[in-house]
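Homework help thread (please don't just give me the answer)

Our assignment gives two proteins as sequence + structure token strings and asks us to describe the second one. The first is just a warm-up. Here they are:
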Amino acid sequence: MPTLIYPFTQILTLDHLPLRGALKDTELQILGNKNEPAGVLIEQDRIVTVDLLKNLLPKKQKNWEVQILDKEYVLTPALVDCHTHICSAGVRALDYSMRIAGDTYENIAQAGGGIISTVRHTRLATQAELAQTTEKRALQQIKNGVLTCEVKSGYGLDLESELKMLRAIKDTQISLKNQIDLIPTCLSAHVKPPEFEQAKDYLDFILKEILPKVKEENLAKRVDIFVENNVKSAFKVEEAEIFLKKSQKMGFQITIHADQFSTGGSLLAIKIGAKSADHLENSTREEIKAFTNSNTVAVALPGASLGLGMKFTPARSLLDNDAILAIASDWNVGSAPMGDLLTQACILGVYEKLTNAETWAGMTFRGAYALDLEDRGVIAPSKKADMLAFAVSDFREILYYQGALKPEIIWKNGKVKFF
């Protein structure tokens, strides 16, 4: 049954914006104002019509349900977080304390911290415990306005534990009953585990033992790898290329942790046609230029920059070079524990001088494109009715509050939830 929702002081549709490149706020389609409010008609999980109320109300049918709002709201698309690690066990507060005291990545690892610390805790956790933790973080994502969330494995690094993580993500999706879409990614190639001496041997193990099981159980359609020359346990460009091409032949879509501490990963991503290259904090002019004619999405992860105290992804330069720029949280227990996409995107926007339009595009339809989901991130006919209502009268106030303002009402697949 169709449902008409109104009135909205403004609807920030993000419709008709290009997928790539820089955006001006004057390009934004804003429907409605205080004197002429707007509304949206939805049916089941899809948007049917978006228009001014003066055009919608005369068309109202007897079978339409109505949701009438009691104060001023701005309606936006729901957020899409296209890079997270919210499935894991343990915390890394010691890492953070050592880092802000000046210790290096290698010193922290030698002291028992780093990714391998999370691996130890995750291997000890049960599938139910991992699902419980993932659900808690996913519920926080919903409150923050994220209704599509990518979730990686990569803290198991053996057959049993990697499958356990991916099964826990699947269990969480079922238990949350479609309040949020969790998009699983197999990141077994996060780092080389201590059980293997050679990176090549571990990558072969993933290809022969882990990925066939992932495919058999339909646990993930995406494969990721940490490509990094300056981290001993990560993977070099040459060995990653062989691994990724074989993964592609198995039918997996590819994404890469790239250019976080050194370059090489993003050029590989572009070369092999990866869906995205994520991080990019150390991308140079060469890498930025390479994104110009590429359909590989450049994903900025400001949460990692904040957690590690390092420079931000060169978002402004990427946009000015016609890249497809998405913004994600990288929510993880080690380098990006905040997990608040809206706050992080606001901060990135300040430092990289992003317009409202560029920031919103990065956390909505451009992030959705990085996940190969082009049915969301825009308020327009036929798109998913994943929407947020903020209790303000002007859309610009949302980023102005730098994440302190959260959505008061959400609609997931057309179903309403109040906070």
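The one we have to describe:
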Amino acid sequence: MYKGSFINTYIFIFMMTLALTSCSEQSLPGSAVSKQAHANLGAYAAAISVDGRYSVVSSANQGVLLWDNHDQISRFQWYHTQNQQNLVHSVALSFDNQVAVTATDTEFALWDTQTGKNLGYYQVSKSTIRDIAVSNQGRYVLYGRADNIVVFVDLWEGRRLEFMGHSEKINSIALSPNGYFALTGGNDYSAYFWDTRSGQVLHRFNHPSRVTKVALDPEGRFAFTADSMKKASIWQLTTGDLVSQLQYIARQKIFSAVTFNQAGTLLATGTPNRMLTLWDVQSGEKVAIWQVEPREGSRPKSAVVFATAFVDNDTALISESSNGMLERFEREITP
């Protein structure tokens, strides 16, 4: 009797220790300190400017909205079709905040963020658009297609380049602010960093499963690539060397938003299951973690984090999610 009680007590203590250890490793997520509704019935896609000033939100019932986050006002409302049906699933903002790009499966449009005027509609005759990006001044547009091809277009001179390095469909792309360099990832387990002026591959980053998310540091220092299982890496762009791998214990982790801070010391990521996480670039260690609000009416309670940006000298993050809200998260700074 005594022996059995001892064993049961030991098992209980072991299980409690394991649970506490798991909690300490995961850390409890924080919540937003402020929220603002940007899409009444939720969003299909969103982007935030690097400085956090603007958000572009593809809404479920209000077309595409350009929000001024400083003044907390919706500046413009855009539609691709006259019947005001919104099929926009990919959006992006130029680094200089001058131009926004919006894309459906078969066309993309450019918009002047200062006047709200449309700068042109462009049809895609082959396959469908999977992801899109735009350079400063809206001169260059990059988009990835479902037929394995990445297209780079110089809208000012009419030059077009098709990058055919991938052997399976494209999942994620990124473009440098000046439009000279691209990072693309696909189902072929590879991400390519390449020169858009020549199509030459500068670095190839290999993964053990399909590459689902890529991002570029706007300052040209780092690249981020992540696959569908457990590998999320930060690379040095000049050499192609590995800087760090994000440290987490989940067997599978998908990223839906990635942003480097201006100093190149921190990385913010968002996921399809509401998580917003801050990482140390050099070590890959987790710095802080939060959860965005679940989308109203979702069962189970969920929300996809579409975009995030650093604000107030990196003391806070803002996010846009499928919940249709701009949320602000703050972290404690150790002296």
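TA reply:
I won't write it for you, but here's a hint about the kind of observation we're looking for: The first helix runs from residue 2 to 26.
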